[in-house]
Design a protein that fits this description.
The complex is a heterodimer of chains A (about 350) and B (about 600). Chain A has about 350 residues and is α+β, with helices and mostly antiparallel strands. Helices cover about 25% and strands about 35% of the residues of chain A. Chain A has 2 domains: about 220 residues, 3-Layer(aba) Sandwich (Rossmann fold); about 110 residues, no CATH class. In chain A, strands 6-7-8-3-9-10 form a 6-stranded mixed sheet, with helices on both faces. In chain A, strand 7, helix 6 and strand 8 form a beta-alpha-beta unit. With about 600 residues, chain B is mainly α. Chain B is about 75% helix and about 0% strand. In chain B, strands 1-2 form a two-stranded antiparallel sheet. The longest helix of chain B is centred in the N-terminal third of the chain and has 43 residues. The chains are: A alpha+beta (about 350), B mainly alpha (about 600). Chains A and B meet through strand 6 and helix 3 of A and helix 11 and helix 12 of B.
Chain lengths: ~350, ~600
Amino acid sequence: MLRLDGVTVRFGARTALDSVDLDVADHETVCVLGPSGSGKSTLLRVVAGLQQPCAGRVLLSGRDVGGVPAHRRGVGLMFQDQQLFPQRDVAGNVAFGLRMRGAGRRERDERVAELLELVGLPGAERRAVAALSGGEQQRVALARSLAPEPRLLMLDEPFGQLDRGLRERLVVELRGLFRRLRTTVLAVTHDQGEAFALADRVVVMRAGRIEQQGAPLAVWRRPASEFVARFLGFGNVVDATVRAGARGVADTPWGALPVPAGTAPGEGRFLVRDTGVRLTAPGVGLLRCTVEAVTFRGGGTAAVTAVLRPERGPLLEASCPLREAPEPGTEVDAVFDADEVVWLGPPG
Amino acid sequence: MDVADREIAGPGPGAEDAAGPYGAEGARSSDPAGLRGAGRRRAALRLSLMAPPAVFFALFFGWPVAAIVARGLRPGGRWQPARIGEVLSDPYVLHVLWFTVWQAAASTALTLLLGLPGAYVFARFDFPGRELLRAVVTVPFVLPTVVVGSAFLGLLGPGGVLDEWWGLRTGGGVWPILLAHLFLNYAVVVRTVGGFWSQLDPRQEEAARTLGASRAAAWRRVTLPALAPSVGAAALMVFLFTFTSFGVVQVLRGPRQSTLEVEIYRRTAALLDLPTAAVLTLLQFAAVTALLAVHAWTLRRRSGTLGLVPPEQTARRPRGRGEWALLWGVLAFLALLVLVPLAVLVERSLDTPHGYGLAFYRALGSASADASFAVAPLDAVGNSFAYAGVATLLALLIGGLAAAALTAGRGAGGVSGTLVRGFDALLMLPLGTSAVTVGFGFLIALDEPPLDLRSSWLLVPLAQALVGVPFVVRTLLPALRAVDVRLREAAAVLGASPWRAWRSVDLPLVRRAVLVSAGFAFAVSLGEFGATVFIARPDAPTLPVAVARLLGRAGPANYGQAMAMSTILMLVCVAALLALERIRTDRSGEF
């Protein structure tokens, strides 16, 4: 459906997109993930035809759309802050694309009613967009971009300004909707939770380049670099030297660290996921730690993250069930789980 | 300690105070009463701020205008409303009225047509020298109308550059007037529309494009509706300025061309036909009031729901051949419109009968042989500065109080909201009222006790301040409104008394706006012509009056000296404006 071929965009001296290659298959939902300034929005603008690339090609359904202006590309773009037209009511907004296509009044009215039903706002046609809540505006924007039946729907930070509860509900609703409509979707977000919940495939970007892509779970389990690991919220990244021998053990500032069997000996950079740091009573493990702080991540996971100050080495983060959360100031021992240790690359 | 502190802090905001006398028991139940008390206090504060400007306007605007109208319609102590009908059925008056409306409409249309591309270029394109050019565009707006008149006379008039070099004569046509009006008001469109345009989110248009709208369709269906109120406001301003234009028309008009304002001047000064002048004044007053009412209405309709973004986010380098062509077209047009007339003015002032030289400038230094200049024309420079300086102080004082009154206790609606809007409109009235009427009214109304100012030098600054006040108010209002109430609240929570909070939060934020408005008031006072021409004493003319006198007399020497004088006046105004642009960072003002 969509193919990007070495797309490069420069703004003066700054390179926003650096030779990006990307494929999106029919009916696939791809989520581009990255910190702000990593070029995600520029990527969408290039596909939409709102930004000309300095180099590279954009192909839609196999055809190079380089010379095709934005309004003839047949892709939809939902903006970060919706950009509903304040002078028009809800129906006027949703029908805008249909109107541009020259649809008759009857057809427009029917389609608007149908779409508003679909996004959960039946009967909202005559409401002023300024009078809508954030979530409702989001739904209207979605209906508006779906109305002309774009072959590719792009979403720029679709849930950026919504509060947490609404965001989580909408993500689930949208995923169901896109499945049902078999829409091809390219979304960008800086929130990993959203990306992982929405996407068939995630693409992590860093400074205009694609750092890693794959199925959400695969990326989560095996971050390809320290950048991806840290962006996903993992803090325990250290240099380690893997000993030669059958059972994988590495020397780290924290002492001996079990690593997955078969890890190549030598120096490397390793991630210890916080779920791989188990807390035990003092005397059970080898690494004595003082609990510095306990933070709640919220949501339904009911897990807490404990920040530990080990007797040696940098601070450690450990995940543990809410019931077993230690009191700050108490002493615990940390035990590492080899399955949660990931080799990230050469030492940093 | 607690109690003492509170007492030292003085009257705290609102409810607490009002609840005080009722004690603890009363305090709990009297919250609504407390709020009402706070509202009353705010209203009282607002009224006391409004009082000085209101008195000033009543004394120096309402009374003179009323006096001249009464003098015209009630000769010998008897009202003669029949005069109105007589004057209005006079074919000549109808012709004047028709020409006034016609030239104002044509000037407005021309200014919009050529100003909108300029507004777009300044709002959306980022190019080197943009800030400087924006200042250059504003130069004509602050130039005295008499100077503009002489510049276009030097360009298009008999003996002007086009005539002398190519034998082109526009003799008596309406084009010189229209072009001079375009020159003067181009900045109004670029600034009001462009300022708003630069804050419109370009992604609105992009959203339309991704929904299948072509560039033209996106502009027509999304940008234009958003822009409409500001285009309307700019159009009204331009219409207002050109409808009441005096200096330009007085200098450039042909024998059969006369506007209401010029006719009022002619009837009062030359023909002493006060009744007709009074009716014409009333007519102009009614028209201007109607226009201002429409203006206030469009201001209120200016949609608050549009998502505005900082202008620096919306400007970008032009892309593609079309956009570059537009940019160069606007720049070339600007060079033609702004630079050529100003250059012509300088050229004419140096073009003496004995080749190029400074002879005209030297001649300005000595009193002329005939009686019309008892003093050296150059003295007018000193007079102008002194008058304009005092006028600026007055305008700042009155305008500052008015702006404070308009922003004090925001959010109060109902009756007081109507009152405030009325007050706001009142402040704008002098912009549209016949300056000639005001000047002549000063002579008639302020010449007897208890207020005998006829021989006082203060008369001129008072009239000039009247015209300066609207500019001060319009420049200060956006700045005052932009001060976030929460900043003041933060200061209060940190222990600042209301006065301290105002001094440490509001004042630094508003200081720039005060300087800018002072500059505008100074430039406007310096260039004021219609009223000053009546009340300036013969031995103490201001620059524009001196220019007009020189132009009014025959001979190349006088013409050249008028051009030299205009050049001096132009340079002063340009210097003042460039100084302003340096301190001006906030461009959200309405001028």
